């Protein structure tokens, strides 16, 4: 009888559910532990951490103003005294521009992915949770966005907004949200039938509460794995858009802009493009490897299938 | 002995070498790779040398010339275009032209004379000429073109340099008379250009806005087949071309080429790579950093000519808040530009600083302009300070709470972008915040006429003072013409009037000097640099001869090995 009394007590029942919820296997703690033991993830983390550090403190340590031109010192090769990476066609120190370029490219990658992550997660969660017409509308937008190449949509949007980094962030973020939406929608679609969601609903929890407290923690892992890939995609997209003159505007350097500026000198002064090109390769490789490691850790179903 | 199974490969190798698709070194490597001994390779090279590219003297008919062009294409309408492209030299002809020495020679007109008082020029027109559509090309047709240029409703941007013309007459089919308000010694320099090419005005009216895009009707040796802005323009041989009487053109009959395809390749280094790879046959304007490499390529011929055109940027006189209507402010900005360093760094010394409106290649050039616009940052800062501008916390000048910041539009092309960046950086050293906006060509011209703060431009004209007057004449301000800076400078207008009424060569030179000094001092625009003109062709191309006096080469004599 005593037990029945306890069960009839809604507050006590909720407290018990909360205790059980808190006592569930600590996924994030386990994930962190596993992440540090995963060599792949560790390698990617080191690369990304290095470039993150460079992006944060690098520009402050730059030996010259990134825009300072010395027309008497153009096209100096790497390891020239006073210019570790040499100078570009306008006599600007390549190292100083590279340090700022890494910051700009990473900021664009993070900015676009943050937009895409938030918009895509919200849209995907609504679609997966409510299904029906909400799902059809979100799905329609996803199909629409995915029906065109990223660069084409970005060029159209930047054409309307105007060239520059803001345009790039908005345009690439606008396209990339669809990937997050699709993944999150699929996860939520399955999760909403689970017992813990049914229990929460039986307890009278609201839809918003269920989505935020019970579903979001279960999809955020997948979203973060996706995020690491999409940061890389955004960095490449920014490089491409800057290469065609729609991204960072001179004299501001981004990695793509630097490759563009050096492209006319590839045969004689290849370092102008190859150095920022190598940085992009390493950065994207680091992000992808980190993403693979995170996927192994956070999504055991896919472990080892990468 | 060459194995029979290797014969095909050898034939292909030899053929590619003769076509210029392989260098000597590549040929040797290829021959060794297919198993030939060095003795055999030497024998083959010796045999090839007797028929190597460029040595054949007999023109061959056929083939399509592929030319890399450094700009996007304007509409092929002489009367209403901002720019005339090489295709104008293929589809149109003008009354007269220049030979490679600069003499006026016949084209549509076979002879001419100017009255002793300089007020009447009479041209004898070749009889029996037709447009490509079959319509007659006679004196009346030419009169219609020239009257069309003068008629404001046709929107010619060049009306202001046709002002000295009082009227035109066509008393009979082969006589054209141009009556002048006053002597106009420069008349021939005007009518020889692409803007005065002869077009069938009836056909033009029929096509309306589509003229020059979907069709043209000229009298040149080729007819338009396709005009695709941003991509290419193609022409094919006009089989009914009656031939030419122009003396320096050796082929008096139909052209040898089946057609010409001009490809827009805005990236200069890309043009150089494409001609080295044999993807194009000729090009204009390689990147300056590539010139020495191209000159050392045995498959290519590089022609260097003195350029008569230059880069400048305008400062909109209507921006009185920035002091652009104050000559001291304009001079201060000009003193901030280190032209000599730009020539060294960006042009690799293939050019010269521009202190006045025209280049030293022109016969009326005066060195007196070099007293102006010398690089002097201290003087620039001092002059700006005298004008009331003080440095703000970020180093940018301010006056009455207004930052010294403005926008310059440039064409989206690699060299323009570099030059824009340099000007931006050099102006920043005196506290000016310049934003450079790189625009495609169509957008650029639309915006240039929409009252921008500043326009950077490369004028291209074989007789520069004429074209420069367009950019500085006050009658072309306020959207009425290409005086994009809305410059109104009485000294400059007076010099233009003197230029346009010069009755002889001496008066023309004197007026030219007056004009240069007025422009160099008053700065209706800020001159920057002049670059040398470079043309490159593969050895298989014959008869393609760029010269100093014509903007582009004629194609009548061109043939391909």
What does this protein structure show overall?
The complex is a heterodimer of chains A (306) and B (561). Chain A has 306 residues and is mainly alpha-helical. Chain A has twelve helices and no strands. Chain A has one domain (26-60, 86-302): MetI-like fold (Orthogonal Bundle), CATH 1.10.3720. Chain A is elongated and about 85 Å long. With 561 residues, chain B is α+β, with helices and mostly antiparallel strands. In chain B, the strands form six sheets. A seven-stranded mixed beta sheet of chain B has the order 8-9-10-1-11-22-12. In chain B, strands 14-21-13-20-18-19 form a six-stranded mixed beta sheet. A four-stranded antiparallel beta sheet of chain B has the order 4-5-7-6, covered by helices on one side. In chain B, 48% of the residues are buried. Mean pLDDT of chain B is 89; it is low at 1-8 and 47-55. Chains A and B meet through loops of A and helix 8, helix 11 and helix 13 of B.
